Amino acid sequence: MNKPHKLPPQRQSQPGREHKMHPRPEVIREGYRGSGKLEHKVALITGGDSGIGRSIAVHYAREGASVCIVYLEEDKDAEDTREMVEKEGQECLIIPGNLAEEHFCREVVDQCISKFDRLDIVINNAAVQHARDEVAEISFEQLKETFETNIYPCFSIVREALPHLKEGASIINTTSVTAYRGSDHLLDYASTKGAIVSFTRALSKMLAKKKIRVNGVAPGPIWTPLIPATLDHVETFGKNTPLGRPGQPGEVAPAYVFLGCGDSSYITGQIIHINGGEIIGS
């Protein structure tokens, strides 16, 4: 894992499918042992069918949590994730649909509460990205899709979930290294990720009096289905990081465990950077 490596050429259409990737992403590190950090908790994870979201679901299950994952239409990936969670001895509810639709966000929370009768952790992780080299190449339709997928559901899911979140609950938002250093080919995506940083900081202040913590994770180049579905050339993806390689979802998800459990009880409004060593402003 720590050696630089070159990924084989591959390309997928949007949205990417994890079961078509080669090599398959590492979901959980060999030797990762759960210790009951999330025992009896229920977590709602958007974009939970694959990539970082899948890895979070499996880590949470190993730590004792039941999970509800939301995805667009990648049924096989979602079913695979459910099997992984159930193999860890936990329940997994999978819900397909478009988070850009406000009413669907309401249905997601309703189904989660109906199934588990509680909600302790909300993880806003779903995202889409399209690579474009020029501003003129970004259509209004693409801009609208990116914002409606990446940032709008953060508001909608949180609004619907809040009546069910009690003191000690945790909200975790997935932003990106691109929010801090920009990206010359992901202008609209980076813009939404910057909005998520601000959303996280503002919401943490709003909910501090309720003793609900709000934090974020900013991954760098991680090997997920977004990559072959976005980039024409994945062979050198991640090679420019100080560690010389892309990260794996299994190297990112433990941060969500930390932010979701009592170990981070005095942390709110913060972002954890997992990017292979790139030094960026906070």
How would you characterize the overall build of this protein?
This protein is α/β, with parallel strands linked by helices. The chain has one domain: NAD(P)-binding Rossmann-like Domain (Rossmann fold, 3-Layer(aba) Sandwich), CATH 3.40.50.720. It has helices at residues 51-62, 75-87, 102-116, 140-150, 152-161, 178-181, 187-207, 249-260, and strands at 42-46, 66-71, 92-96, 121-124, 170-174, 213-219, 271-274. Strands 3-2-1-4-5-6-7 form a seven-stranded parallel beta sheet, sandwiched between helices. Strand 6, helix 8 and strand 7 (271-274) form a beta-alpha-beta unit. The model has no long low-confidence stretch (mean pLDDT 95).
Q: TL;DR?
A:
Helix content is 35%, strand content 13%. The chain contains 8 helices and 7 strands. The chain has helices spanning 51-62, 75-87, 102-116, 140-150, 152-161, 178-181, 187-207, 249-260; strands at 42-46, 66-71, 92-96, 121-124, 170-174, 213-219, 271-274.
Strand residue content: 5-15%
Number of domains: 1
What share of residues is helical? 25-40%
Q: Which structural class is indicated by helix and strand composition? A: alpha/beta
Q: Indicate the overall shape.
A: globular
Strand tally is: 7
Please, what is the CATH homologous superfamily? NAD(P)-binding Rossmann-like Domain
CATH topology group: Rossmann fold
**Overall average residue pLDDT:** 95
Q: Uncertain segments of ≥5 residues (pLDDT<50)?
A: none
Major β-sheet, in short? 7 strands, parallel
Enumerate how many helices there are, as a single number.
8
Q: Give me the Rg, rounded.
A: 17 Å
The first-level CATH class is given as Alpha Beta
